[in-house]
Amino acid sequence: MTLTPAELTSAVSGGIGTSPQRPDGNLKVRGEFAYASDLWHEDMIWGATLRSPHPYARIVSVDLTEALKVPGVYAVLTHSDVPGRNLYGLEHKDQPVLAVDVVRYQGEPIALVGADHPETALRAMKKIAVVYDVLEPVVDMETAVDDTPLHPGGNLVRHVPIRRGAQDLTADVVVTGRYEVGMQDQAFLGPESGLAVPAEDGSIDLYIATQWLHVDRDQVASALGLPLDKVRLTLSGVGGAFGGREDLSMQVHACLLALHTGKPVKMVYNREESFYGHVHRHPAVLYYEHGADHTGKLVYVRAKIYLDGGAYASSTPAVVANAATLGVGPYEVDNVTVDCYGVYTNNPPCGAMRGFGAVQAGFAYESQMDKLAEALGMSPVDVRVRNAMTEGSVMPTGQVVDSAAPVAQLLKLVQDKPLPAGTSSDIRELPGGVSNTTHGEGVVRGVGYAVGIKNICFSEGYDDYSTARVRVSMVNGELAAAVHTAACEVGQGLVTIMQQIVRTELGIERVTVLPMDTTIGNGGSTSASRQTYVTGGAVKAACAAVRSRLDGRTDIGSEVIDETVEWRHRATEALDPVTGQGNAHVQYGFAAHRAVVDVDVDLGLVKVVALDCAQDVGRALNPQAVVGQIQGGSAQGLGLAVMEEIQTSGGKVRNPSFTDYLIPTVLDMPPMSIDVLELADPHAPYGIRGVGEPPTISSTPAIVAAIRAATGLALTRVPVRPEHLTGT
């Protein structure tokens, strides 16, 4: 007899649809969870990195003499000590492990020090003498293509055109705008850290906080000149990621020092170095033109989008594709002209961050929809509902949306929520808070709406898959299961979801998740809201293979039933390079926000009073985790709206610290009323839809729309600063 999942789970708790306690939850709350920065080895030494102080310069000479004289120093390495290929990168291998003859951004690694104590390593690092020929940096994304070429192929990383319908139409009502999005940091609390341990046979083990173990391994092996089986990676405790750990940071550096010295090497960045050591969200300049008829129906949308990729490509090509293909938003438009450009500059490298290109476009197209509503004399919600995408709508790429697209429903849900009470007399609830800047005088309230669209999983024909192994055996007289994947748990709750899936599919309550490492096949990146979909699909499929062998048995004696499955979602295809047409995406996610803000118009201070959200998640496998993801994504959107920006001048970072780079605290986040829709996607495991990114897209423009409503100002740039509101 073979039991169905419904029959199997009748006797167990903690399956899908419930919110079991996270296995890492208590440890994290008590401060006992072991993060990568807590790694330790009895005989380890410490690594440090010398970084360029200049955004753009030629390296004339590097003198290591004095650094090597410092007592306790084991090694000082430069590019000449890289035994393999001194280039790496996610999509283009254009970034040196250690700079050779030129540095292209402030903070580029030049040399490494290994020493018996972190302070010793820092002292030695400061004694490395580098002579630079400082060059004029390229910093303007709009003119970069025609500026000094920073790479052999020029400064254009990628151009994605989208052409659909007529290209030369006019309309009854036309609105245009130029918008800017600042450079946002992922601001994860756990800094880059890891431990490299050399083996006697010349191989290396790296314990690392990352988002993608196998791609890290491949790049590390290439730089070390080692075969893949000589480089083993194991995931260590990750203190947040949000895209900032998808690229290499200190992975190769720690391994180089370990192999050179024969000792385990630990590297931990301080907060300032972390700002230089990982990619950020692409700053953007966006030009839009929307044309509509008198009823508010969109006739055409035209856009030109510039994304600043900084010194190296990272994931810029994919970010460009997202900004282009999603650049019109969740609206039906028959006639579309979009050109999106990603460029090299001497600004800090930019790559993946939650929302991945859709955030920048979302701020612009939602600002345009508000401007269109005003021009038409319509409400912001009505003009959006008038043009809202539905299931069966056609994207600007020609792709048919073949699962739920409840855009109008989401907007109406947030619109119908009760509004918060009027402006408070409690200073803690007013702009400026306990700084006592106001008691309500000069404070005005505004309400704003926004909705967004995000692709889920990897796109454009990428072979997107995950591998899962499920093993069942008898332990103390009862069935127990173990799950092994290389999919990275970065705090999002994947470990819990995998346990829930196994309990549901096998009816086994005792489920252990084994350490994530490269001894099993690729799990793909923890990005693109893909892990529950793809790794969840792999675990589900592996469970089905195990279940077919269990055949309903509850006692298997000494037998171990073990199945490994490589699972893929449905295929996508590359965009046509001329028209941008093609079925590029797997799935789309939608979220809507209503923001209520109080603004002190005299001081330019903003208090977000409410930030309500409605989102379709397909099916909530873990309802509590879903709400947590919506809250977290909304918090990052709030940060981009009113406070978060890496400020640069001439390519130099002005605020590489949490003193000057501000992120929302618990006091900045308002109450959130959240509606979770479960409109199953028939193409996805359990009908799920990726959750983590959509709320980041619509939260920012909703907040800015509310500030506009309060002040009457145009506000075409985020984050909104006090001087934007006061004119000072």
Any overview of this molecule?
The chain has three domains: 5-33 and 465-568, Aldehyde oxidase/xanthine dehydrogenase, molybdopterin binding domain (Aldehyde Oxidoreductase, domain 4, 2-Layer Sandwich); 37-135 and 191-238 and 245-277, Aldehyde Oxidoreductase, domain 3 (Alpha-Beta Complex), CATH 3.90.1170; 280-459 and 576-726, Aldehyde Oxidoreductase, domain 4 (2-Layer Sandwich), CATH 3.30.365. The chain is 24% helix and 25% strand. The strands form six sheets. Strands 3-5-1-12-9-10-11 form a seven-stranded mixed β-sheet, sandwiched between helices. A six-stranded mixed β-sheet has the order 7-15-14-13-8-26. Strands 16-21-22-25 form a four-stranded mixed β-sheet, sandwiched between helices. α5 crosses α6. It is globular, with a radius of gyration of 26 Å. The relative contact order is 0.14. The model has no long low-confidence stretch (mean pLDDT 97).
Task: List unreliable stretches of 5+ residues.
Answer: none
The count of DSSP E runs of length 2 or more, i.e. the number of strands, is 26
Main sheet makeup: 7 strands, mixed
CATH topology of the largest domain: Aldehyde Oxidoreductase, domain 4
The CATH architecture assignment of the largest domain turns out to be: 2-Layer Sandwich
Number of domains: 3
Which structural class fits the helix and strand makeup? alpha+beta
Strand order of the main beta sheet, please?
3-5-1-12-9-10-11
Q: In the CATH hierarchy, what is the class of the largest domain?
A: Alpha Beta
Question: What's the CATH superfamily of the largest domain, by name?
Answer: Aldehyde oxidase/xanthine dehydrogenase, molybdopterin binding domain
User: Looking at the structure, what is the overall shape?
Assistant: globular
Number of helices: 16
CA-based gyration radius: 26 Å
What is the rounded distance between the termini? 76 Å
Helical content stands at 10-25%
**Mean of all residue-level pLDDT scores:** 97
Q: Strand fraction band?
A: 15-25%
